[in-house]
Each structure stands twice: as C-alpha cells, then as structure tokens.
C-alpha cells in the first residue's frame, strides 16, 4: 500500500488568508518529500470554502514541483468541462515537464450546480463533455497532427507542445464518488480510479472496487486511490477533539456548497437533489471513525485502522491522506505526517524516504 497526501481546503478569508494556507501546504509538501510519502495531490473547486482556495491545481503543483525531486504530483481532480481540451492538455503537459515526468492526471465531472452556472455549461452535458474532453486530451498527448471533430470542440490539425515526458501520456485517473457507470466506464477505458470512502458505505465502496477490477481493460495494472481525512496525535483526547473539529468544519463547508441542489435537478446526477437534505441532518463523527471513514487517533489506533482498510479493500490500494484542510494548525498536520512515518507505517506500509 502506497501512502500520500491530498490537500482539500475548506477555509476562506474569514478563517485563514490564502497566502498563509498555501505557504503551510508547501511546507507540508517539503516534509512529505523528506519523509518518503508517495504523492501530493490537490483539488479543483470554485467560489465556496469547499475547495475554493484551489481553482487551479496545476498552479499549486507547479510550485510543488520546483521544490521536490521524488514525490509524485496529482490533480485530484481537475475538471475538463471547464476548460478547452487544448488548453488543459498543454498546462498538464507543461507540468509533467516541470516535474520531470511525475504527473498523475486525475479528471472529474464536477457536481456543484453553481460552478456549472458560472462557466455557462449546462449541467446535463457534464458526462458527455467529460468523456469527450478526456479523450481529446489523451489524443493530444499521444499523437501529432491531431484533428478533433467532437460534439463540443473542433480543432486541428495541431501538434501539442510541449510533449509530455511520460509516454504515451501521464497516468489518467477518473475521480468519482457516486456513479457506478463512471466506475465501469473508467475501467473499460483503462483509466485508474480515485474515490472517497467517506461518501459511501463500506458495501458501496466494495461494490465499486469489485466492478472496477472486473471491468479493467488497461494495458498496465489498475491503480486505486482512496482519500481519508487524517489526524494523528500521541494524546488520544487531543486527536479526537482536533479530528472532530476538522470534520465538523469540512461537513459544514460541503453543506453550503451543495445547497443549490435543493432547487436544481438533473438526470445526469440522480439522487443529488436529496444531498442537501441528507447533509442538513448531519453525520456522526464517532460513527465515521468507527467505520474507518476518518483516520483519527493515536499511532496505534490509526495503525489498526490501516490494517483493517487493507483487509477490506486490498493492500494494493493507494491512500491519499487529507492532513490539512486549513482548520487545524500547520503543526498539527506536520505532527500527523511525522507520527505516520515514524510510528504507524514502519513494518506495515513503509515509506521510501529520500
């Protein structure tokens, strides 16, 4: 099992200045590189405290690339529907070059109605736009004199510069939290998978992973990334207090971002109309820890959680740990990374320290 970190900010100007948050995250990138973590990832969202401090993952990852030499750099995920495929393919190819071929390119459909409205994109077109744009980006990376005649974009012949370092293209991941169809489509197209255990039951995740593995048609081994908010501290009471505060803030941020689903419906997102109502009822922090949806506790407690996750989902999965949404201090996040590296992972899933 490989272990990395993911940044999903859920803070805004009233909580912490953006410049301070980015500085803290880049210092954590340095620490992840030093301690031997597998990867660093960051999301793309807009407008809300739910991810809004990261409207462009490539900008942050370019900064991370300039201060690291080993750790892989991942979008988690960038949204093809909101950019022309030539533009996004070029930005990601440039990042692959700046990092010396360390890019993992994850793409997502997006799901927040306010984001689609702001970009003037009909939300009902999201799946078709996603499928077309990812295919166009892969073609631009892998081929020259590309001609594209799609439903939404027409261009060519063009040859993208720079060419990606990784050939025929960087690893492609699909990020999905709800749709079984998206999981099956990703597997059949040879795209790797990213998903969020906190968004579903254990049985639901097992169903998705079984489907993905059964439908896999890629040329290499399938890769599965699972994301977990994580707080580790030697003091069990402090760990749970901090973990609870972080989870409650993250949930409140998500609740605000999905509020528009109360007045929006889309056949492309069945069931999302009930999302705001479900979140309004809240979720129990202790239950989420008990179900291993949050990794919170002492080193021994979190080690036990990781052992159980490996038993449930396989030790071939990769974990992306959300250690800094911005509500806790830099010192809390750094403590989590150090305790994992020094007391949790040795003898279990050792890191590859530089």
Topology-level CATH name: TIM Barrel
Number of DSSP-assigned strands: 11
Profile the largest sheet.
8 strands, parallel, barrel
Distance between the termini: 18 Å
Number of helices: 12
- Return Rg in Å: 19 Å
Explain this structure to me?
With 354 residues, the chain is an alpha/beta fold. The chain has a single domain (2-253, 281-344), classed as Luciferase-like domain (TIM Barrel), CATH 3.20.20. Helices cover 43% and strands 15% of the residues. It has 12 helices and 11 strands. The chain has helices at 18-35, 57-65, 85-98, 113-119, 126-142, 180-188, 202-215, 236-257, 275-280, 285-290, 299-313, 330-344; strands at 2-7, 39-42, 72-75, 103-108, 146-149, 154-158, 172-175, 192-195, 224-232, 295-297, 318-322. The strands form 2 sheets. It has an 8-stranded parallel β-barrel with strand order 1-2-3-4-7-8-9-11, surrounded by 6 helices. A two-stranded antiparallel sheet has the order 5-6. α1 links the parallel β1 (2-7) and β2 (39-42). α1 (18-35) packs parallel to α12 and α11 (299-313) packs across α12 (330-344). The longest helix is centred in the last third of the chain and has 22 residues, at 236-257. It starts with a strand and ends in a 10-residue tail after the last helix.
């Amino acid at each position: 099992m490989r272990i990395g970190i993911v940044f999903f900010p859920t803070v805004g100007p009233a909580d912490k200045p953006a410049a301070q948050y980015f500085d803290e995250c880049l210092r954590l990138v340095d620490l992840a590189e030093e301690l031997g973590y597998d990867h660093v990832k960051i999301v793309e969202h807009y407008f809300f405290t739910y991810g809004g401090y990261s409207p462009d993952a490539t900008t942050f990852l370019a900064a991370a690339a300039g201060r690291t030499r080993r750790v892989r750099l991942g979008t988690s995920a960038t949204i093809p529907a909101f950019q022309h495929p030539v533009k996004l393919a070029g930005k990601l190819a440039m990042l692959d070059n700046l990092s010396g071929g360390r890019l993992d390119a994850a793409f997502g459909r997006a799901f927040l109605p306010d984001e689609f409205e702001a970009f003037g994109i009909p939300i009902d077109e999201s799946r078709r736009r996603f499928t077309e744009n990812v295919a166009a980006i892969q073609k631009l990376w892998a081929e020259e004199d590309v001609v594209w005649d799609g439903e939404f974009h027409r261009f060519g012949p063009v040859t993208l510069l720079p060419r990606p370092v990784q050939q025929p293209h960087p690893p492609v991941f699909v990020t999905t939290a709800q749709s079984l169809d998206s999981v099956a489509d990703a597997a059949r197209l040879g795209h790797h998978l990213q998903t969020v255990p906190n968004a579903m039951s254990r049985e639901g995740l097992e169903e998705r992973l079984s489907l993905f593995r059964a439908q896999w048609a890629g040329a290499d081994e399938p890769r599965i990334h699972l994301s977990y908010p994580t707080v580790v501290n030697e003091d069990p009471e402090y760990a749970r207090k901090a973990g609870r505060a972080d989870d409650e803030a993250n949930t409140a941020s998500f609740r605000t971002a999905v509020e528009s689903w109360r007045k929006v419906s889309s056949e492309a997102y069945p069931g999302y109309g009930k999302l705001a109502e479900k979140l309004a009822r809240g979720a129990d922090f202790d239950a989420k820890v008990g179900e291993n949806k949050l990794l919170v506790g002492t080193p021994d407690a979190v080690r036990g959680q990781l052992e159980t996750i490996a038993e449930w989902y396989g030790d071939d999965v990769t974990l992306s740990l959300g250690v800094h949404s911005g509500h806790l201090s830099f010192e809390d996040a750094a403590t989590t990374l150090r305790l994992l590296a020094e007391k949790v992972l040795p003898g279990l899933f050792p890191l590859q320290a530089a």
